[in-house]
């Protein structure tokens, strides 16, 4: 199990470095107050579910992608309250529908505009 987690984290690092997976224009950012699916996430990258690096992570985690165009956050951590010290995000702030993969991936992500 530890080996599987190590491989998943290694692939997550590769996914962050890999170019995006195409799939059209990114979704329009929403205000942070409209994120009602859980905590806002800070993800190192957001790619389509069909991107090769994301597909590899999904295979390791046993996830079957229903739609290859769904935005997926890679290497994410929750941000509890925006504006407090220690809760900044230097990557991409997103609101995701499924955050149940321990930060390796978060599925169904929409960009968050923390200034709204």
Folded structure, characterized:
The structure is a single chain. The chain has helices spanning 2-17, 52-61; strands at residues 30-31, 40-48, 71-79, 92-98, 105-113. The protein is of the alpha+beta class and 116 residues long. Strands 1, 2, 3, 4 and 5 form a five-stranded mixed β-sheet that branches. β4 and β5 (105-113) form a beta hairpin. α1 (2-17) packs antiparallel against α2 (52-61). The longest helix is centred in the N-terminal third of the chain and has 16 residues, at 2-17. The chain is globular, with a radius of gyration of 14 Å.
Give a short overview.
The protein has 116 residues and is α+β, with helices and mostly antiparallel strands. The protein has helices at residues 2-17, 52-61, and strands at 30-31, 40-48, 71-79, 92-98, 105-113. Strands 1, 2, 3, 4 and 5 form a five-stranded mixed β-sheet that branches.
